[in-house]
Predict the 3D structure of the following.
Amino acid sequence: MYIFDGAMGTMLQAAGLEEGYCPELFNIERPEVVKDIHAQYLQHGSDVITTNTFGACGLKLEDYDLQDRVREINIAAVKVAKEAIAETKPTARVAGSMGPTGRFLQPLGNMSFDSIYDTYREQAEALIEGGVDFIIIETIIDVQEMRAALLASLDAREAAGKTKDDVQIICQFSFSEDGRTITGTPPAVATTIVEAMGADIIGINCSLGPEQITPLIEEIASVTNLPISCQPNA
């Protein structure tokens, strides 16, 4: 069993992140702040720390006109995380975070599957190049977006000459109070889809608290023997 860390965004805000500033740019412009946050989680028992890259794909970085710096930002984030581990808890591991793009695929939105795939592929390649132990695709509310992100991660891992022994891929969905994703997929169906595609670990994060997530985790466990991750809201 691994104990993951907690939130990054609220910690960055407490450390001075101002409204309108890109959180992921801290990896380059204020790396000491990010490293200190990682170190705090490690000191309090985390076995895996998650990179400050939740919004570091090209489509999200467009909001800050930073879409040309995807590789730079992601590699810097992994470097900071590894430095914190080396100085605080050398046995810990790094998970490269990939969050939602904020866009919907057709026909719900105007994005093609290929465009979503491409943005995740670019980020996954950078995280793997940086040296992550896991890629964690998290807070995903649309199974089609998860399919694109997972396929991109699998392809990036293969292109880098890595296997699941080197980099494990975690697929974490977010569910609403009705027990389905925003686009209507229940946990068992989502699990079956990503397991068939090649996910290494499947789970849930965000949106709901421990009591609400427990039956959804049980539903996942009823249809898979893969390891399960659970990161509920506090």
About this structure: Strands lie at 48-50, 93-98, 134-140, 168-173, 201-205, 228-231. The first helix runs from residue 9 to 14.
